[in-house]
Amino acid sequence: MGDKDPNISLLFGISESPIRVYEAKLKVYVGKMYIFPSYIGFYTKVFGLSKKILMPANLIAEIISQDSITMKIIVHKKDKKTKRKKFTFKNEANHNEATALAKTIIAKS
Predict the structure, then answer these.
(1) CA 84 – CA 106 distance, rounded (Å)
(2) CA–CA separation, 88 and 27 (whole Å)
(3) Backbone torsion region of residue 80, taken as left when φ is above 0, otherwise alpha when ψ lies between -120 and 50, otherwise beta
(4) Torsions phi, psi of 74, nearest 5?
(5) Cα dihedral 102/94/55/71 (nearest 10)
(6) Pairing of strands 70-76, 39-46
(7) How much is the pTM?
(8) Cα(35)–Cα(102) distance, rounded to whole angstroms?
(9) Staple 58 to which of 5, 80, 90, 109, CB 3.0 to 4.6 Å?
(10) How far apart are CA 109 and CA 89, in angstroms?
(11) 41-96 tens-digit pLDDT
(12) CA 18 to the chain's CA centroid
């Protein structure tokens, strides 16, 4: 389920193409999670308002499966602050696949 839109990499300001794309929810924002070889990104645009997050794999400390459809990503920022992002997926299969893939890319970083 890769995203064929060539502008996605430009949107995030990186040169990588996404490995996989998942529909996901971050808080109240419904959008797409993009898993790149070195990043995990999230993007949504609703009513002209957009939200974009890009997390470098080398700053991701941990990925936790909270339940059958929720993944928590813990990111250590350069300024020593820890950020926690909780993503909810439509179903358990997408959650399991995204969690496994995300853990693989952070293991490689």
Answers:
(1) 16
(2) 8
(3) left
(4) -105, 120
(5) -90
(6) unpaired
(7) 0.90
(8) 7
(9) 109
(10) 24
(11) 999 998 888 999 999 999 999 999 999 999 999 998 776 678 899 999 999 999 99
(12) 10
